[in-house]
């Protein structure tokens, strides 16, 4: 039997669980989000349930009452009206290491695309780094294509790769 979870947008009341989830996956990012300007708290403050940004979370249907992240197994963050009024930017995507390879990130991205299409958004942007081949493969499989590379942006030999996808109907 597969993993049973639901996907929903976050609310301000999810702050602590969102923070704990980001802390859980922090070292999956290069550099870790906690080491970037503003850190994790600022990322949440500007991206949690605002008029221009939010997160979709995948939560287990059956949760353990002692689970400090309230069953969150994956999360995608986005900002609307990024380059123009009909574009969005994926600013965060991660899956709990214990729940990878269940299609959670794919389903989160597809749910986000559906939401944005319904609101007449045309393009979604994102970036990843060259030392993350799993993310490169994942995004390209979802139809994103690289349009820019910044060499050595994340350290010697680690490039930032910018992707985009046209989601127009």
Q: How would you characterize the overall build of this protein?
A:
There is one protein chain. With 169 residues, the protein is of the alpha+beta class. The model has no long low-confidence stretch (mean pLDDT 94). The longest helix is centred in the middle third of the chain and has 15 residues. Helix 3 links the parallel strand 4 and strand 5. 26% of the residues lie in helices and 30% in strands. The protein has a 7-stranded mixed beta sheet with strand order 1-2-3-4-5-7-6, sandwiched between helices.
Architecture blueprint of SSEs:
Blueprint: E1 5-9, H1 15-25, H2 39-47, E2 53-60, E3 72-80, E4 87-95, H3 104-118, E5 123-129, H4 133-141, E6 145-150, E7 160-166
Parallel strand pairs: 4-5
Antiparallel strand pairs: 1-2, 2-3, 3-4, 5-7, 6-7
Oligomer: single chain
What is the mean predicted local confidence, pLDDT? 94
| Structural category | alpha+beta
Q: In percent terms, what proportion of residues is strand?
A: 25-35%
Order of helices and strands: EHHEEEHEHEE
Helix content: 25-40%
How many strand segments? 7
| Shape by Cα distribution | globular
Distance, first to last CA? 34 Å
Number of helices: 4
Physical arrangement of strands within the biggest beta sheet: 1-2-3-4-5-7-6
Which stretches of 5+ consecutive residues score pLDDT under 50? none
Q: Major sheet: size, sense and barrel closure?
A: 7 strands, mixed
The gyration radius over C-alpha positions equals 16 Å
Question: Can you describe this structure in just a few lines?
Answer:
By secondary structure, the protein is an alpha+beta fold. It is 26% helix and 30% strand. A hairpin with a 6-residue loop joins strand 3 and strand 4.
């Amino acid at each position: 039997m597969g993993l049973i979870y639901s996907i929903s947008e976050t609310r301000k009341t999810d702050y602590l669980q969102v923070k704990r989830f980001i802390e859980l996956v922090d070292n999956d990012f290069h550099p870790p989000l906690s080491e970037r300007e503003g850190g994790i708290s600022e990322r949440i403050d500007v991206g949690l349930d605002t008029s221009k940004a939010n997160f979709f979370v995948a939560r287990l249907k059956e949760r353990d009452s002692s689970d400090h992240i309230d069953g969150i197994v994956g999360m995608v963050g986005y900002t609307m009206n990024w380059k123009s009024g009909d574009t969005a930017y994926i600013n965060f995507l991660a899956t709990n290491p214990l729940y990878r390879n269940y299609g959670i990130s794919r389903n989160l991205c597809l749910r986000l695309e559906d939401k944005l299409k319904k609101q007449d958004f045309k393009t979604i942007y994102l970036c990843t780094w060259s030392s993350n081949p799993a993310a490169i493969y994942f995004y390209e499989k979802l139809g994103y294509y690289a349009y820019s590379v910044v060499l050595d942006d994340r350290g010697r030999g680690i490039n930032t790769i910018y992707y985009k996808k046209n989601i127009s109907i």
